[in-house]
Amino acid sequence: MAFTAAHQNKANPGPYTSAHLNQNGPGDARPTGFQIVEDNGLVGKLTDKKGEVALKDILEPDRVELIQIDVGFLDSVRTAAKTFLSKSSTLNVLINNAAIMACPEAKSVDGFESQLAINFLGHFLLFKLLEPTLLKSSTHLKKAWSSGEAVQRFWKSTAQGAATTMVAAIGKEWEGKGGVYLEDCQEAIPTPPGCEGSIGAAAHAFDPEKETKLWDMATKMVGL
């Protein structure tokens, strides 16, 4: 199935809407994650000096520090959060983006189905453990809750694939706003009929009653 400009969100166009109208594969005019950083005036400002000494031989100095974490193992998540908090009292952005998909049936060390454990519970626990620091660090918390030539036009490079995540994390237009689903660097339209699982935001993504139920269940599952 080919997706055209007709599926774009014309009701609320954003600064990158036009770049997504004519898709021509990886490296086309669609923005990259670094471009989002540039456009928000944050080049060189997302730094952490603590990483320079430990990682100067393998990473660019004054940019990145690594903390080991296995989001499928709740004790590992707790250790990682504790390690982070021992190193910093500030957390400006938290991107929970690790996931698995369509893998063989398996259970985590804690006994949960692997996709539930890795794609949700680990991230949920990490957020809850870091929530006080995240809230304290920002006055406006942002929530950003095949083959063939025709299909390849819609593929993105790795850098372009990171762009929407960066918009959610640092985009000035989303400061203080939340509860939306972003796609192609803008708010997603409702999923068009016949395109379920492909583009847009499905109706079940916004269900307050089920959201509350899941939140309560997850809190008990991770022992909070």
Notes on the protein architecture:
Helix 1 (33-39) packs parallel to helix 7 and helix 3 (74-87) runs parallel beside helix 4 (114-137). Helix content is 36%, strand content 2%. It is an all-alpha fold and 224 residues long. It has a two-stranded antiparallel ribbon.
Mean of all residue-level pLDDT scores? 80
Helix content: 25-40%
Shape: globular
The gyration radius over C-alpha positions equals 19 Å
What is the CA–CA distance across the termini? 44 Å
The largest sheet has its strands arranged as 1-2
The helix/strand order is: HHHHHHHEEH
Strand content is: under 5%
Largest sheet: 2 strands, antiparallel
Summarize this structure briefly:
The chain is mainly α and 224 residues long. Helix content is 36%, strand content 2%. The chain contains 8 helices and 2 strands; from the N terminus they run αααααααββα.
List keywords for this structure.
mainly alpha, disordered N terminus, 224 residues, single chain
Secondary structure elements and pairings:
Elements: H1 33-39, H2 51-55, H3 74-87, H4 114-137, H5 149-152, H6 158-161, H7 163-170, E1 182-183, E2 186-187, H8 208-221
Antiparallel strand pairs: 1-2
